[in-house]
Write a structure and sequence with these properties.
The complex is a heterodimer of chains A (116) and B (156). Helix content of chain A is 40%, strand content 29%. With 116 residues, chain A is an alpha+beta fold. Chain A starts with a helix and ends with a helix. In chain B, strand 2 and strand 3 (36-40) form a beta hairpin. Classes of the chains: A alpha+beta (116), B alpha+beta (156).
Chain lengths: 116, 156
């Protein structure tokens, strides 16, 4: 994993409540770099988040609201966040429900800068 | 209506789940010699025969490449096209090795196919009956088995 990507993901995982952060290819759903807690199936999160993001991208364009910038999916036992980055990369974060989403989003934006 | 047809019934349920979850367009489960045990999505027997023969040949040739670089075998092979991808992998079951050939479109991804392929292997291994008694393979048997399999797979 390149040092630049590692630092970007470390910035995200330092936020309290984050269980894992991944850089994923948005078309293949494969992991480019990851920093996830033990017990988190990174490959599953990557594949499913990329699929979800691709469908949401179609939905936002179809709804006439343009391209998606940030996806926040709140579930019963956790939160999934994703943000498209340049060059076909998707930043994906898995976190607790009480995570500071604003802070995570800020770190995700920094990670987007890292892949530019 | 499911488009999955299986010569061996224990394959059908795991394969239906796999094609539904992974969004596979075409799927073949076959033996390393190219004998088809189940298929999803194919409409013509000739396409199944061609895909099975070519898939088995690819696995066979990549196994030789693996041997030359000191690997026992490759776990999986993915060919990525612009509109479609082909995922080809070998799995070990109590009935011996089987091959899976999966064609997926832009609505799916290699990540999804890999993810649900792992589940498919686990389910097939769990559902697989004990090994069949081996019998000598002669050309006439192979030809007859092939035609019987294709007839069943296409409901003839």
């Amino acid at each position: 994993m390149s040092e630049q990507f590692k630092q970007a993901l470390d910035g995200i995982t330092r936020v309290r409540g984050v269980r894992g952060a991944l850089m994923v290819t948005d078309d293949d759903g494969l992991i480019i770099a990851d920093a996830v807690m033990e017990g988190v199936r990174g490959d599953a999160v990557a594949a499913l988040a990329a699929s979800l993001s691709a469908r949401m991208a179609k939905a936002t364009v179809g709804a006439g609201v343009g391209e998606q910038h940030f996806l926040h999916l709140q579930a019963e036992n956790g939160t999934l966040l994703s943000m498209p980055a340049p060059n076909g990369v998707l930043i994906v974060v898995l976190a607790e429900n009480d995570v500071n989403v604003g802070l995570v989003r800020l770190e995700m934006l920094r990670a987007v800068e890292a892949v530019k | 209506m499911s488009r999955v047809r299986a010569v061996e019934p224990w394959i059908e349920d795991p394969l239906v789940r796999f094609v539904t979850e992974a969004g596979a367009r075409l799927t073949l489960i076959m033996t390393p010699s190219g004998q088809v045990l189940a298929q999803h999505g194919f409409t013509r027997a000739v396409d199944v025969m061609a895909a099975a023969a070519l898939g088995a040949a690819i696995v066979s040739s990549t196994r030789e490449i693996a041997t030359t670089i000191g690997e026992e075998t490759f776990r999986a092979l993915n060919h990525q096209g612009i509109q479609h991808g082909i995922f080809l992998a070998e799995m070990a079951t109590p009935r011996g090795p089987l091959l899976a050939l999966v064609v997926y479109g832009p609505e799916s991804s290699v990540g999804l196919v890999q993810l649900f392929y792992e589940d498919l292997v686990q389910e097939l291994v769990a559902a697989c009956p004990d090994e069949e008694p081996t019998k000598p393979v002669i050309a006439a048997d192979f030809e007859r088995d092939l035609h019987n399999s294709l007839a069943f797979l296409f409901g003839r």
